User: What shape does this take?
Amino acid sequence: AQTVTQSQPEMSVQEAETVTLSCTYDTSESDYYLFWYKQPPSRQMILVIRQEAYKQQNATENRFSVNFQKAAKSFSLKISDSQLGDAAMYFCAYRGGGGGADGLTFGKGTHLIIQP
Amino acid sequence: SAVISQKPSRDICQRGTSLTIQCQVDSQVTMMFWYRQQPGQSLTLIATANQGSEATYESGFVIDKFPISRPNLTFSTLTVSNMSPEDSSIYLCSVTAGGTSTDTQYFGPGTRLTVL
Assistant: This one.
């Protein structure tokens, strides 16, 4: 079974600075997808960024980027120019490459605090 | 992406009763997923619901406790049966979006359930 590990229960960063959230995973599959989701206090799960394992290029979405190291099974999220609205729980998630029928396996989450 | 709504948004229930949660999507989707998020925890997949077939349950979840219906391509229900305080959680519905985003899951706003 796949596992996802987020080793940082909580992170704190000053507004406008950069922060990196860590995620490692374990899988025997070669084709899979990785995601970062954000969950603010409203509890709505919001997709931040996704990465296909077959792509070597790291995904980017505006201020959000990932460092995907397939051999090391590492998938970290970098948030640049942190804003107060970035404060939330961040979950790393894994999905196998078996088409649309697979559910997600989540890490335990990292609580991100933005200090003004 | 897909727009997903859930009803009710929250409820407080008595021990031993059952609650049915509805999930409505604004477009036709093949797979729908139900997750549970216990207080302060991450998300755990309960089951996968494919229209026209029985739902597939993850280890630790059984149909008698969490019966699921999937009558058409835009709607599903999850029932939490014979509830106990341990069932107090947020229950989230999600779908896999079509087109080029077939491998991304989008989430509904969740149903916060409290069992007394």
